[in-house]
Specification:
Number of strands: 20
Order of helices and strands: EEEHEEHEHHHEHEHEEHHEEEEEEEEEE
Oligomer: single chain
Radius of gyration: 25 Å
Shape: elongated
Largest sheet: 6 strands, mixed
Structural class: alpha+beta
Distance between the termini: 42 Å
Length: 347
């Protein structure tokens, strides 16, 4: 099912949680709403679900006005961060709950309910836990049962609010892979909220980056990481080395002198250069756009993390260098950004 969000605004008193937000979610795709706390991502998810109503704007499901429908009528499956399983019910009964509470005319026969629950337990790979209670399950198992319960009603849309936020790092990583595989099998239109960029980059078909109630960028994981549209996206997605610069007469000035760095259309005034730590080349200081002194070298594996105190306006940055390029603490080195972005400062 396709979801269209048009000019949605939501306020809580004087606080604007969503500011004229527009978004299309394609049928069958898995979309991540990514952003820091307070960016509006959970509010947007709850509006799609029907748990909140916008002050302005429209929400359409396959071209039909979703705001005219109740939560039940929207046929949405919702998975909460803290599972919200019924503690007094077995795993089997938790999953069956949504099927049993349907109006009598829509309710499946008991035999079919039991078959469907067993099919879902098989899908989430936990059939052997059918008779256990939530208190007897691990966090990862509870989350999978919560997902099975949401899928039991055969939702047109699946919504997940920080689905792995309460789990430890190892279990989160395992469940991320599992969710991606599951989505490829069921193809239900899915939207999930996260503040974990690694989670969004690994799982989602597209990422919606949000900040302060607005959408900063929408794109495939590689697109938002490699071609960020704003300074916020560059800093929030992946690691960034950020260096203050000045643009004048179509030249970028670093440490008070012009460089060969392309201003990328930025107008005159203060700006910032953004580059990934692994996209900076270490060169001789005499042929470098930037110079600095090595303050620390650490890390294992193929690359080393190097802390460099830049000359001029003193800025401490971290770069990655190959293991075969040893650098000594106290050494003066030159740095040339390779792939980079220039963003003008807000005026």
């Amino acid at each position: 099912m396709r979801i269209e969000i048009r000019d949605v605004t939501k306020r809580f008193g004087d606080f604007t949680a969503l500011d004229n937000v527009g978004l299309d979610v394609r049928s069958g795709e898995l979309v991540a709403l990514l952003g820091p706390s307070g960016s509006g991502k959970t509010t947007l998810l709850r509006i799609i679900a029907g748990l909140e109503w916008p002050d302005d704007g429209r929400v359409m499901f396959d071209g039909t006005d979703a705001l005219s429908r109740s939560v039940a009528e929207r046929h949405v499956g919702f998975v909460f961060q803290h599972y919200a399983l019924f503690r007094h019910m077995s795993v089997f009964e938790n999953i069956a709950f949504g099927l049993r509470v349907r109006p009598r005319a829509q309710r499946l026969p008991e035999e079919r309910i039991r078959e469907k629950v067993h099919e879902l337990l098989e899908l989430v790979q936990l059939k052997w836990l059918a008779e256990r209670y939530p208190s007897q399950l691990s966090g990862g198992q509870r989350q999978r049962i919560a997902l099975a319960r949401a899928l039991a009603i055969e939702p047109r849309v699946l919504l997940l609010d920080e689905p792995f936020g309460a789990l430890d790092a190892k279990v989160r990583k395992e469940l991320r892979r599992w969710l991606r595989t599951l989505h490829e099998d069921i193809h239900v239109t899915s939207v999930f909220v996260t503040h974990d960029q690694e989670e969004a980059l690994e799982v989602a078909d597209r990422i919606v980056v949000m900040d302060k109630g607005r959408i900063e960028q929408v794109g495939a994981p590689a697109e938002v990481h490699d071609a960020p549209a704003t300074a916020f996206v560059h800093e929030f997605i992946g690691e960034s080395v950020v260096v203050p610069v000045t643009v004048s007469d179509r030249k970028v000035h670093l440490q008070g002198r012009p460089t060969a760095i392309d201003p990328q259309g930025a107008g005159n005034g203060s700006a910032r250069l953004f580059v990934r730590p692994y996209e900076i080349e270490v060169v001789s200081p005499s042929s470098a756009a930037l110079t600095g002194v090595v303050k620390r070298v650490h890390g294992l594996g193929a690359a080393r993390r190097v802390e460099v105190l830049l000359s001029g306006p003193e800025t401490l940055v971290e770069i990655d260098t190959p293991r075969h390029r040893p650098l000594a603490v106290g050494e003066t080195i030159g740095l040339n950004p390779q792939r980079y972005r220039i963003f003008a400062d807000a005026r």
